[in-house]
Amino acid sequence: MPALVEIQAGIRDYMIAGDASGLADRLFGGRDPLARVAIHRRHYRASLAQTLLGKFPACAWLLGSETLNAAVMAFVEVEPPLAPCLAEYGDGFPGFLGARLGQRVPFIEPFAQLELAIGRASVAVTRPPLPIDALAAYAPESLPDLEFALQPGLAFVAADYPVHDLMDVFLGRTEGHDGPLPRRAAFIEIRGARGSFSFRAVDPGTMAFRSALQRGSALGSAAEEALACPGFDPGSALAALFAEELVIAIGQSPETGT
Amino acid sequence: MTKSRDDLRTGIGLRLPHLAVVAATRPTANWLEIHPENFLANPHARELLEEIADHYAISVHTVGVSIGSAGGIDAAHLKRVRALVDRLDPVLVSGHLAWSTHKGAYLNDLLPLPYNEQVLDLLVRHVGEVQDGLGRRYLVENPSTYVGIRGSIMTEPEFLGELAQRTGCGLLCDVSNIHVSGTNLGFDPVAYLEAFPAEQVAEMHLGGYTPEADPADPGAELLIDTHAAPIADPAWRLYARAVARFGATPTLIEWDSALPPFATLQNEAAKADTLAAAVLGWEVRHARAG
Asked: Span B32-39, mean pLDDT?
């Protein structure tokens, strides 16, 4: 009698990639047990496909349903979920789309990244923001070492094409125009909470500063990173962060304080 | 086991499409069951659920804990479920006699197990880990089955009874699953029900299934546990037998896809209450939410 681990490895391989070798003599049920276990595979694949198609309707609009469906089924065969929350499934799909279709649609990967970020931001929950006065609790010389927690529904996408313009067309906010999407760098900030979302192009310094803070960089390091972008002004960037109610917590990096 | 009139009441599965309307209008429901995996990565849904939990008794029905995985319990997932359970303080916490995870891949379906001593030892260990990890008694549900794994030396009710006896877990008897599995694997659902360990039953489920042609057996029909249809007459008849055998037991109406208006689920719950009351000779009472 095979060990449970071997049985489950065989079923896993079948579920993901369709390899049924060695399964038939381990199963029973009906005249063809492999046809029965195929019901599980069908459910598995359909549930993942439904999850991905639900997350990427704009990609379906852009590529056509047939093309996206084929990409989804191909993705499902190479990348199973790694955790039981299907809402977390599909982070690798934009990259997969880029590798599969990028030659034909060069902006598909950042467009899908933008769509994924919008979906994630729109189920976030806004936290009470801190006023800029909160900085008064810290000594001026400690400011560069401060770390900021930003609103959970904040995300950034950098692209070589203005994919946010294309998303506006999908959403019916603007009319499309004929011709290919021009190649132009875009730095896109996405915000969302409780079912709503917005996105806009920001200057590269703002994106560098905010995304560095979001990754956990201290204020000084984030500003230094953003200063590589022409025109970035740390003072007004800091003021804007509070004015736009993006800061929800302040702490000091472990080296310098609590 | 003492049963009371409160145990008669039938609850409703709360799924994401109904979340906002339930939070806003607080429709009548005796209790609500949620799948924690739908809320762990959705902060907005979780916020609405926490509001709802202030007004309804909640049951937490896990679909991703995978007590049958040879590779062990996903401790990180269990920890996330624990955090939600602690916040909701549910009246019941349950999961399935099945597996869904192997070597890091989550297969998003409830896959069958062989019922033998080695698997029983494994599940005894895993149910213990789950009960310790969640800090609560866990109810284990009989699965719906299309295909079995060779190597079983005991029946499913025997296996569940041993598991309950050795771990102190409770059992969730899914009446529709008995009918589905009996039809698909050719056993007598009534005999299965009669063998089910009654003392450990703390909850029942009733869900809709969908018939489809058996591809390997022309003219024969399979039942697929879709939870996408009204509860069918054979399941209602088996439910009446289950109530007679187990007594008044909290019962859930499961409807997960092709979701109808919430009122349809309320009607199904009222039907279950009425049927159970008739079997027990009790006067039915429908509780109000809020």
From this structure: 98
Q: Is the pLDDT of residue B288 over 50?
A: no
CA gap B90, B86 in Å, rounded? 8
Whose CA is closest to B162, among B133, B127, B192?
B127
Q: Residues B67-79: what's their mean pLDDT?
A: 97
What are A176's two structure tokens? Answer: 């499309």
Which chain A residues are closer than 8 Å to B104 by Cβ? 82
Please answer yes or no on whether B103 and A1 come within 8 Å at the CB atom.
Answer: no
The 3-state DSSP class for residue B189 equals helix
How many angstroms away from the CA of A143 is the closest CA of chain B?
A: 31
CA–CA distance, A121 with A103 (Å, rounded to integer)? 29
Q: Which residue of A has its CA nearest to B63?
A: A84
Is residue B32 within 8 Å of B262, Cβ to Cβ? no
Q: Which tens digits make up the pLDDT trace of B194-223?
A: 999 999 999 999 999 999 999 878 889 999
Bridge-based pairing state of the strands A247-252 and A146-150: antiparallel
Considering only CB atoms, which chain A residues are within 8 Å of B45?
123
Rounded to two decimals, what is the model's pTM?
0.93
Tell me the domains of chain B and their CATH numbers: 5-280 (3.20.20.150)
Helix (H, G, I), strand (E, B) or coil at B221: strand
Cβ pair A108, A68 in contact under 8 A: no
What's the complex ipTM?
0.93
Distances B105 to A8, A44, A194, B74 between C-alpha atoms, Å: 11, 12, 30, 11
Which residues in chain B touch residue A47, judged by CB atoms under 8 angstroms apart? Answer: 108-109
| Contact between A1 and B151 using a beta-carbon 8 Å cutoff | yes
Residue ranges, chain A, pLDDT below 70: 1, 254-258
Please tell me the distance in Å from A17's CA to the nearest CA on chain B.
Answer: 12
Looking at the predicted structure, is the pLDDT value of residue B1 above 50? Answer: no
The two tokens of residue B156 are 């499913």
Interface contact A18, partner B, CB < 8 A: no
Mean pLDDT value across chain B: 94
Say how far apart CA A90 and CA A56 lie, in whole Å: 10
Cite the beta strand spans of B134-262 per DSSP E. 139-141, 148-149, 170-174, 201-207, 210-213, 221-224, 251-254
